[in-house]
Amino acid sequence: MNIYLHVEVAVREIDSKLLLATLAAARGHQVIVSDLEPLEKGIIRGHLMPGIFHTKSISPGKLKIERHNKIINSGSKVTSMDEESGVADYDYDQMLKNRYSEKTIQQASAIFTWGEDDDESLKKNYQKYSAKIHKTGSPRVDLWKSIFLQYWGLPKNAPTKPFLLISSSMSVCDSVAFHERIKNHTEFGYFQRNPDYFKELFKVQANDYLKAFTFVEAIRYLSKHNNGFDIVLRPHPVESIECWKILLEGIPNVHINREGSITSWVKNSFAVMHNGCTTAVETLISKKPLITYVSPDLNYNNCLTNELGYIVRSKEDLLNRIKALFEKIKSNNQEDLSVQLPKKFSKKIYLDENELAAKKIIKIWESLDDQSLSRPNNWLTYKWRLQLMNFNGLVGRILKFFIKGKFEVKKENPKFPSIEINEIRKSVKTFQEVLGINKKLECRYLSKHSVLIKLK
């Protein structure tokens, strides 16, 4: 079967998509892991045979509905798991209004859910389509389990000292201006579906500016009184690293880094600090100490993950808590310093200790195939088509130069940097070792944002 895995934000999704690809390829399927353009154009133009097109959301924007219609009309089937998850929210109501519609659920052949919360909400609101909604859990959560500890090495450019990881989720440093977000949300119909969301965005934005200030002050305080550890601030995928460099300029022992998956940073930190991040759940599942810093200056903390871990409300208490955790690590204390995940999160995250979520998803994909999704692709032709597509883009920019007098350099996709094929091969090999997969798999470079994984 042909499986086409769409990755939007590489640091968030690439490892879980490679896990899916490794398991699927070992079962004889041919899998492309890619950003959107090579998959969309390949499927719609007939350069790729029909297959499963698995995407990161089915939010009901006009362009996405049209794209999925074309993909379905080509003979492919659309499936989805929303990468936004909604894990940090008290309920799934806002996600339900913003990320789904009758039309997009009708288009999908299968929808995979993170846990009981999103599964029940979707089935209740879209009863007619409940048979295509599946509580599988997320492959991203698979990778938080202890069996994948071997997969996560030391992150690139990690400090040599033990480090506190600070996971950021603050729109003050968003790479997209607030008015542009409002414009995009308007075009995608968010406010039409959920009128209260307009006010909600303003409340979150205002609070995030205060939150960023309290975190900068806390980092400054921790750095001044630190007793041997470094601090790594991990910007959210949509945040500007340059913005954080300006805000934290001149503070010693602070590293700003977004290389690789955050899971690797969580695994290698001695503790994680956050406010309002999904990473809080990952931290506890990974059995790492979690500190939730909720300054009294903030008046808006409507976030379920802020109830997790050690909750501290002042810089002084924050320092004392982190010092205590660091001293236990320095003394090689083997005590489990993590805090148990509250039972209420069992509705948010489905953790099956007997079977990976990735395996559940692949089995459902296989049930959708009536052999029409298994016709072989000509991979040499497809790779040539991708090269031609890039060449045509270059020609188009040259023509615009002669017409407008200005050459437009094609910008690197900040959400999906160019693939390093040797890193992909290393990841797939490690997955095979961890999972005991003895089949010979091939990782073939197709373009700077696309890789093919299949049996040799």
Give descriptors for this structure.
Rossmann fold; single chain; 2 domains; 456 residues; alpha/beta; 17 helices
Please tally the β strands and state the result.
14
The protein's oligomeric status is single chain
Helix fraction, binned, reads: 40-55%
Specify the overall morphology: globular
Description:
Helix 1 packs across helix 15 (357-368) and helix 1 (10-26) crosses helix 17 (421-435). A hairpin with a 2-residue loop joins strand 13 and strand 14. With 456 residues, the chain is α/β, with parallel strands linked by helices. The chain has two domains: 2-145 and 351-455, Rossmann fold (3-Layer(aba) Sandwich), CATH 3.40.50; 149-342, Glycogen Phosphorylase B (Rossmann fold, 3-Layer(aba) Sandwich). It is 43% helix and 14% strand. The chain starts with a strand and ends with a strand. An eight-stranded mixed beta sheet has the order 6-5-4-3-1-2-14-13, with helices on both faces. Strands 9-8-7-10-11-12 form a six-stranded parallel beta sheet, with helices on both faces.
